[in-house]
Amino acid sequence: MDRLKLHRNGPYLVMIPGLILLALFSIYPFLFLLKISFQKYSPIGKTKPFIGFDNYIHLFQDHNFWNAIKVTAIFVLSTVSLEFIIGLALAVILNQLRIGERIVQSLILIPIAMAPTVVGLMFRFMMNDQYGVLNYFAEIFGFSRTAWLSNLDFALPALIATDIWQWTPFMMIILLAGLKGISDEPYEAARIDGASAWQTFWYVTIPQLSKIIYIALLLRTIDSFRIYDTIYMMTKGGPINSTSTLSWIVYDKGFKFLEFGYGAAICVVLLIVVVTLLTLLLKKIDLFEVEKKS
């Protein structure tokens, strides 16, 4: 009888260590974050009074917060869309490559093997207005030197370009795996029907890749919202908050100015924004599943 009970409860017993870790490192921190977002919480203060929704009211009246919303939206939309377009192009090219495919893939994947702090530091040196390699080549081609990271017009595009350089290979490898999984039959049918290369790509390849595309967009969208390391190494949110994203002002308010309660409120709003976007993407994936079944 005891063995029968153990057999029935075995799966639940195996889950207990994982549930304990989930509670310690995910659920409890989130509940603590939610709690202090309603407090005037500071590590240097003796009292941590409950202030209700004051942090959230102040948040929506804060010009820096709305600026961070705008910068984050520009950054996420630009990086994810361009990484998808370039990554898809590279995936299609590599899928057609028959000689040296593994070597080319290995070379393209080098950026994602590097830490974001290293990439940020490398691009900061490359974009230096005095000794940066980009200005060196700019002068060779007759252009003047540019202070890429301290110029209001170029700082955010420089950050976007850095992210694209590092994470396009990630998008490419997911899409390439999807292309490898498409059978030859749809392409043979399209060839028999006399479809052009563009028609085959648009009406055969893209529909077959639809679920993979949304998964790739989902993963990169999550990661784009979390950018911090590269900003810290390259611009530190400047100049004049032109590269200050939501994740950056969480650090700025919470750890630089020790306004933990206010920083927690920003985290809660960021979480709501990300969860809403991810829910919409997941609904798209479910929609494609329903269409395929029908």
Give your account of this protein's structure.
- It is a single chain.
- The protein is mainly α and 294 residues long.
- It folds into 2 domains: 1-26, no CATH class; 62-293, MetI-like fold.
- The protein contains 12 helices and no strands.
Q: What's the structural blueprint in terms of helices and strands?
A:
Elements: H1 2-36, H2 54-60, H3 63-96, H4 101-108, H5 116-126, H6 133-140, H7 155-180, H8 185-192, H9 197-225, H10 229-234, H11 246-256, H12 260-293
The CATH topology name of the largest domain reads MetI-like fold
CATH architecture of the largest domain: Orthogonal Bundle
Give the total of domains: 2
Radius of gyration from CA coordinates: 24 Å
- What form results from the Cα inertia axes? globular
Q: What's the quaternary structure here?
A: single chain
The percentage helix is over 70%
CATH superfamily of the largest domain: MetI-like
Q: Can you count the beta strands?
A: 0
User: Counting H and I runs of at least 4 residues, what is the number of helices?
Assistant: 12
Reading off the top of the CATH hierarchy, the class of the largest domain is best stated as Mainly Alpha
Instruction: Give unreliable regions as ranges.
Output: none
The helix/strand order is HHHHHHHHHHHH
**Separation of termini?**
46 Å
Rounded mean pLDDT is: 86
Class based on secondary structure composition and strand pairing: mainly alpha
The fraction of residues in strands falls at: under 5%
